[in-house]
Amino acid sequence: MRKYFFLFAIAFSVTGCQDNANKMDEKYAPYEHFFFQRSFPDSTLDLSVMLKSVEKSRNLFAFNQAKTSEAEWLQEGPFNIGGRLNTIAVHPEDPSTWIVGTAGGGAYITNDEGATWANLTESLSHLPIGHITFDPNNTETIYIGTGDVNISGTVYIGNGLYRSTDGGENWENIGLQETRIISKIIVNPDNSDQIFVATMGIPFEAGPDRGLYRSDDGGESWEQILFVSETAGIIDLVMNPEDPSVLYAAGWNRIRTNLESIASGEDAKIFKSVDGGDSWEVLTSGLPSVPMSRIGLYLWEGNPEVLFALYVNPSFQLEGIYKSIDAGDSFETIPTFNIPPNALGGFGWYFGKIRVNPTDQDEISVLGVDLYSTTNGGNSWLMSAPPWFEYIVHADKHDMVYLGPEDILLATDGGLYRTTNGAATWTDVDRIPNTQFYRIATSPHDENLIYGGAQDNGTSISVGDEPTDDWLRFFGGDGFQPILDPLLENLTYMTTQNGSFYCYDSDFGELFYLIDGYTAEERVNWDAPFRMDHGDNSILYMARERVYRMEDAPYGIWEPISPVLVDDSDIFFDRRNVSTIAQSEVNGEVLYAGTSDGKAWVSQNDGDEWVDISEGLPGYYVTDIKASPFNEGEVLISVSGYRDNDETPHLYLSSDYGQDWISVSGNLEEMPINHIEIYDETTWFIASDNGVYITGNNGINWQRAGANFPFVVVADLEIQEETNRLIAGTFGVSIFSIDIEELLEDIVSSTSFEAAIKIKLYPNPTQDYITTSEAPAGSEYTIFNMSGKIVLQGILSHPRIELNLPDGTYIIDIQSPEALYRNKFIVIGS
Q: Is residue 500, in this structure, part of any structural domain at all?
């Protein structure tokens, strides 16, 4: 009981003040962090590589499914601490049925007004959802547009438009994959075969695949009917339901790379068509005539001649609200003088939504950090939901739907809320596991407890006996690495963004801010490394641009134990920092550090001297280092990145403290690896952008772990030793766990070349092909060079494999559901 008391104490005494200290203009930060990880040293990443990676991951998953497996992941929640929601769709004939689209975790449906929820999109390879709509003529037909419409990071692109004709049971992709982010879908209420789709294109490339598209044949083919520019897409779209040939579309300039962010421009205009999109005019009367940022549109249900528009200015604050009563021929300004100047928090590009009560055109709401509403046409405005920092209604509002004049649904960065009394009170009505976790931890004192640090949701803990029980958020900010003291149950350490470290002592009710000793001006990672010494619970390690140690924690001070370990290049200067640190469990004086600018370092004398061990590594963002708990000099290192024509491995092994590295990526696709866990001397787990993978033979072969894991970014893993379960923290669908013993029954058990079934190959030596008649058709083959790099892979559909390889010696692995086949062959005279 004491444990939960101190958690509640933290929640109420610390969370509010910590979050108030956050700079609201840091909204870019988490997504810049993700983008930089996956693109360094380039300014952008290669989309084709990302897509190929996902495709291969799905193929490998399907291949694994051919085996009999009982290893299934259990959703651990939290269900009560919601994540980002972008859009709400309400069933046109059944107001108790709602569908919400999350920023990175798919779409969920409720048929009982939020009491229970079901995942609709487990089969989709791209889980960011931009918009959802029902066919008004056949409500069993549902459309989902993929891609994060708020465009705060490039890893949240989509792969087009999906349709279900059976109420969401099954989905088919009906095109527009190249547009990557779908912002709005409208089905003609008079003709279900006519579909309009607004798109924003690839966020990190200027290009032609942006704008408004129309299908006149139910999605069989698409025509681009409005193209604004190569840097601008269509961010909002409304249709006159009484005359579907009348459409209004809002343009938005948006480009986002590591070196450039465009979120405003001259293409921020409202376009109108009166012929179903065949031709367009720009509306100008009474509207801003200078470059602007995002625009939100709303056509009032009471009179389709009444159109509202919200403009965000280039400073990303509210420019103004405009109303037309003559179908856009002219606009008047709605008074906004007593809406706070910072209502959009300085990042209005993230919002841009306006909503109006369908029974009263004078009741208008602005969706921003907080919710502001007027009931008298703008003459006065009030905050219509509690302030964001009270966490009664979460910050950052993205969609709002009226179920009735006083019955409203509100989608936020922290889930879905409902009021049934005109915003007098609000209730959290979603139980959807879509929290975005950065880091997780398990308790050494209670095997049932899981801790997690989450984007925009602080640090939380599972306090119930069942996964569906409520979690408790007990610390604010953006949550990162929690640490539980293994000996002193009263000490709990927490991390927030940009390297702020805290410790709470429940025995004395004291909160320690672990700030003394380092220089605040030093460069620091958004997800700053934070570790406890393996052998001494009074010693902590953290890193900024150098590595620090604290003795006598939590009462000590930070002391640097390394020089600056990153370059001072002007390019990405502020983003060069130490990204991960590790300590050997075999010899605690062996320390490692990896950096965001692609370097790795080792100290074998407790930090007195550091040696650069980067040679042999690709120079990409180092995401994790894991020292073997069995062999002192053995260490694994993982990197991030997507790059065209570059099959560089993302996982490396050294047996000599990093002096020499070999690839242990095996048959993994090229994808970012975010975390490593070592289970025993041959069995490892990795967290990747495409899920969790396992090897049972030191990286020779990998397979997706478990039978039911979604295709989502996994940020962290933890082995719960007491229960022998693997815990996975995802950035979009909360936390999962799985029984490791069940996983071990499914993995390839061979640990050496000789342990595999030796397969006959001919001709050998060869020049341009090899043939085998022994491996089953449909098996996956992987060919490695003698450095361990994958040079060719595919599905064995024919005994003959065509080669286009330089002279040399190679190893081929052919993995069937029953066995691993392997042999060497030589290419000469190619």
A: yes
Helix (H, G, I), strand (E, B) or coil at 9: helix
Residues 527 and 464 in one domain: yes
pLDDT-wise least confident of 46-55, 57-66, 115-124: 57-66
Half-sphere exposure of 196 (CA within 13 A, CB side): 28
Q: Could you tell me if 420 and 74 are in contact, meaning their C-beta atoms sit under 8 angstroms apart?
A: no
**pLDDT, tens digit, for every residue of 172-203?**
999 999 999 999 999 999 999 999 999 999 98
Instruction: Give the pLDDT mean for 674-686.
Output: 95
- Beta-carbon contacts of residue 218 (< 8 Å; ≥ 6 apart): 192, 193, 195
Domain identity same for 791 and 671? no
712 and 762 in one domain?
no
Which residue has tokens 């074998």? 604
Pick the last residue of a domain from 676, 711, 744. 744
Angle at 533 between CA 530 and CA 539, to 5 degrees: 85
Please tell me whether residues 701 and 783 are part of one structural domain. no
DSSP E strands in 258-381: the ranges are: 261-262, 270-273, 281-283, 295-299, 307-312, 318-324, 332-334, 353-357, 360-367, 371-374
Q: Position of tokens 């053995």?
A: 634
Question: Cα–Cα distances in Å, from 380 out to 132, 356, 368, 386, 764?
Answer: 33, 15, 17, 17, 84
Task: Write down which residue in 693, 711, 744 finishes a domain.
Answer: 744
pLDDT at 52: 66
Q: What is the pTM of this model?
A: 0.83
Assess whether the previous peptide bond of 95 is cis (omega < 30° from 0): no
Please state, in angstroms and as integers, the Cα–Cα distance from residue 31 to each residue in 34, 50, 619, following that order: 5, 16, 21
Domain that holds residue 805: 757-827
Q: Render pLDDT for 207-243 as a digit per residue (tens, 0 to 9).
A: 999 999 999 999 999 999 999 999 999 999 999 999 9
Residue 73: pLDDT band (50, 70, 90) is: very high
Portion of the chain with pLDDT greater than 70, in percent: 90
Spatial CA neighbour of 298 closest among 308, 310, 306? 308
> 350 phi and psi, to 5 degrees?
-85, -15
For residue 147, the Cα-to-chain-centroid distance in whole angstroms is: 11
Enumerate residues 6+ apart whose C-beta is below 8 A from 526.
29, 30, 32, 33, 497, 498
Give the H/E segment covering residue 593.
Answer: strand 591-595
* 66 token code pair: 């051919």
Q: In this structure, what CATH number is given to the domain that contains residue 796? A: 2.60.40.3080
User: Per-residue b/e over 121-155, b at no fewer than 16 CB within 10 Å?
Assistant: beebbbbbbbbbbbbbeeeebbbbbbbbbbbbbbb
pLDDT > 90: percent of the chain: 68
The rounded distance, in Å, linking the Cα atoms of 763 and 800 is 11
Q: What is the phi/psi pair of residue 214, to 5°?
A: -135, 140
Contact present, 14 and 476 (Cβ < 8 Å): yes
My answer on whether 652 and 782 are in the same domain is: no
Q: Of 346, 461, 453, which is closest to residue 396 (Cα–Cα)? A: 346
pLDDT for residue 28: 59
**Residue 4, helix vs strand vs coil:** helix
Distance CA 207, CA 665 (A): 34
